[in-house]
Write a structure and sequence with these properties.
- It holds the Pfam family BD-FAE.
- It comes from Pseudoflavonifractor capillosus ATCC 29799.
- InterPro entries: AB_hydrolase_fold, BD-FAE-like_dom, GDXG_lipolytic_enzyme.
- The chain is α/β, with parallel strands linked by helices.
- The chain has a single domain, classed as Rossmann fold.
- It contains 9 helices and 8 strands.
- Strands 1-2-4-3-5-6-7-8 form an 8-stranded mixed β-sheet, with helices on both faces.
- Strand 3, helix 2 and strand 4 form a beta-alpha-beta unit.
- Helix 3 crosses helix 4.
Length: 280
């Protein structure tokens, strides 16, 4: 396995310095070539933690399950408080561009790179899915929109809205604002979806009491209005932060659920369907 850890300078020398030590870690098979249909996906994984930390259960266990499904995985430990917008957004864009530049080394196609986030990491993934063409990326990093655009987005019980269903602590840590200023209203992601968003896979549980599942539903409706291809898996039971919903990610049986654990294999199959639908 190609298990490598890259720091800020290796990911992108132009990245602004932050207070958080960031890293990008690869979980990739060596010398595997392409899958039968000539395509292998890569995925950037963004653990959750309310922009206060990046949790462990949504990092390596998720990466290893994607790897088992034939997807080359990369975990980004991005900036959290006291760093604020747009620090983590720029790091996510830079990480995706780094993987795209090195796609051949990892046996993936440069036009088959997804971003996958959990909770606040789901918000960050949604930011890149919505705002990959934001001029700040070129201004700060010298990267083009095409270099950083994700080819698919995977959002797991994501923070989405700054409105009625907001997880307000996440938005406050990200922006320092109790209510979003007009220039940051785009971070309430149901308001900034466009026809340029990539195909998106979403999942949530009806009993999530930390980030209301209405966040996921609002985003799904916004994608639907813009004609963006999407798949939504909505499970009847499960707490927040289930990760893979298996024993590998959570020792507490309360975070394990046989039905919710189907999300990741379903997601891998969805990626392959998107590959077929968009095949050259």
């Amino acid at each position: 396995m190609l298990y490598e850890r890259f720091g800020r300078e290796e990911i992108c020398p132009a990245l602004p310095e932050g207070a958080t030590e960031i890293s990008l870690t690869s979980y990739a098979r060596e010398n595997i070539g392409a899958l039968a249909d000539g395509v292998r996906w890569g995925v950037v994984i963004l653990p959750g933690g309310g922009y206060r930390l990046t949790g462990s259960s949504e990092a390596e266990p998720v990466a290893l399950d994607f790897l088992h499904g034939g997807v080359q995985a990369f975990v980004l430990r991005y900036s959290v408080e006291p760093d604020q917008w747009p620090q983590a957004f720029l790091e996510t864009a830079a990480a995706l561009a780094f993987i795209r530049r090195n796609a051949e080394q990892y046996g993936i196609r440069p036009d088959r790179i997804a971003v996958c986030g959990f909770s606040a990491g789901g918000h960050l993934a949604g930011c890149l899915a919505n705002l990959w063409a934001d001029p700040i990326i070129g201004e700060k990093l010298g990267l083009t929109a095409e270099e950083v655009r994700p080819d698919a987005a995977i959002l797991s019980y994501p923070v989405i809205s700054a409105g009625e269903w907001a997880h307000r602590d996440s938005f406050f840590r990200l922006t320092g604002q109790k209510a979003l200023s007009p220039e940051l209203e785009k971070l309430s992601l149901e308001k900034s979806v466009t026809t340029g968003n990539p195909p998106t896979f979403l999942w949530a549980t009806d009993t999530d009491r930390t980030v209301p599942p209405e966040n996921t539903l609002l985003y799904a409706c916004a994608l639907r209005r813009q004609g963006v291809p999407l798949e939504l898996q909505y499970y009847g039971h499960g707490p927040h932060a289930m990760a893979t919903a298996t024993s590998e990610a959570a020792g507490d049986p309360g975070w394990q659920d046989e039905q919710a654990a189907t999300w990741l294999p379903l997601c891998v199959r969805w990626l392959q369907r998107e590959t077929w639908r968009n095949k050259d």
